[in-house]
Amino acid sequence: IGKIADGAQLTRRTVVAILQQLEAGIFAQYRQNPEQFIAEVCRLINEQKASVIVEHLRYNPIDETHDIDIFTANQVRQENIHVSQRLNRHIYDYVATDSSIEERFAQELDSSDEVVVYAKLPNGFFIPTPIGDYNPDWAISFREGAVKHVYFVAETKGSMSSLQLRLIEDMKIACAKKFFAGLESIETGKHVKYDVVNTFEKLIELVNR
User: Is residue 84's pLDDT more than 80?
Assistant: First the structure.
């Protein structure tokens, strides 16, 4: 009960109430493999919690803004980063990426005539969610008239299969979609889009919808 309470971030009392609802045959599986049983119970509880959270989540705009030094302040050197060649369209001459996928994505953004300017978003830029802060990967501004949407915030992933995304990260992405959908409803005259893409071609397909 203690391990499930920790893994699902629930009180012991709530965990007991959940376990009491299990059929006897299912609960008996605990004796066969306690660790797997605990892990599976935690996974199922967290899936349901996350679904309820995202379903009822709502973001409201505030007046706070980020200063430009968010891109340089408190940056920590990371191991295994890829430093690009000199760039033309990024807000800085160089960009550090944490995977070959991001490195290739940056190169494609930089060579696209449809892109005006783009930025690899720093760790200091995050979206608060009920399951932890979330950092999108990129902010991209497109040439007006060349594509339908002028702004786009992207999360780059090697696989588009949600089964290959960790549950918590998958739920954070769902929260981010609600966050940017809320921005779109504000009368700014511009459209801010957000989505998960694994190639530059997929990005262009989405912005032209």
Answer: no
